[in-house]
Amino acid sequence: MNKVREIQLGELSLLKNFIAICSKYNLRYYALGGTLLGVIRHKGFIPWDDDMDLGMPRKDYEKFLSICNKELPEHVVLRLHDDNLGNTSIMDTSLQIPFGDELCSPFIDIFPLDGYPDDRFHYFIHTNKIKFYRALSKISVIDRLHDRDRGSFENAIVSISKVLKLNKLLKTATINNKLQNLIKQYDFETSSIVGNVLGSYRERELARKEVFGEPQLLEFENLEISCHANPDEYLIKIYGDYMKLPKEAERKGHFESTWGD
């Protein structure tokens, strides 16, 4: 069994635990990004993908955080990522797989889903405020950042900040508190535009409320996973022709891209 499949099977076990908690407490969640793409295109993991992303409406997300420690098995831990702008993950500490010089444990990223303004003026203002605080947050932890593709605005700010060492002037917790308060201004339940506001794909992860809609269960490996009511519209916005496989050279997972083979 290769390393990627080991990670995937570990994440599948975590997913079973997560689904059990959501079922017990009637919590909503959705497969996001590449995880949803895997559901639709492969009925499971993308073969080379070792990452799993889930999103929960803010109310359900905060409920999950409040009860998960008493519900998760001992070897599964909750990790809050202040330097990753407020999302969290659950990790299986009983399994460690070598990638490069690192030992990596399977984990699932869980993101809060929030609302967004739907008129052009407030959309523009809200988007640029988020970009500003997001860039400040990255600067504050610049010594810990892995090289990766970001938006051009963030890339420019990060590059300048590395030279000027601006991270010494900033407090991560203060910045992230302001950012979290900002994205909570628009409620998932009452907004017509919703999504993973701080996702890797930026505004492409936002969609009409109807696209998320009432979660539907779709096949994922040997499980059923909760997905958007209209996954097609969501995936087209992020990936374009999402049924087309990427070139061989582009088929890399999270762990391989970060730590190497």
Uncertain parts = none
- Helix/strand-derived class? alpha+beta
SS strand fraction: 15-25%
CATH level 1 name of the largest domain: Alpha Beta
What is the succession of H and E elements? HEHEHEEEEEHHHEEHEEHH
Task: Give a quick account of the main beta sheet: strands, pairing sense, barrel closure.
Answer: 7 strands, mixed
Secondary structure: number of strands: 11
Mean pLDDT over the residues = 87
> How many separate helices?
9
The CATH topology name of the largest domain reads Beta Polymerase, domain 2
Q: What brief labels describe this structure?
A:
261 residues, seven-stranded mixed sheet, Beta Polymerase, domain 2, alpha+beta
Structure notes:
Helices cover 43% and strands 19% of the residues. It is built from nine helices and eleven strands. The protein has helices at 3-25, 33-42, 58-71, 120-140, 152-164, 172-183, 209-212, 231-239, 254-259; strands at residues 30-31, 53-57, 76-80, 88-92, 97-99, 102-104, 107-116, 193-195, 206-208, 216-220, 223-227. A hairpin with a 7-residue loop joins strand 3 (76-80) and strand 4 (88-92). The chain starts with a helix and ends with a helix.
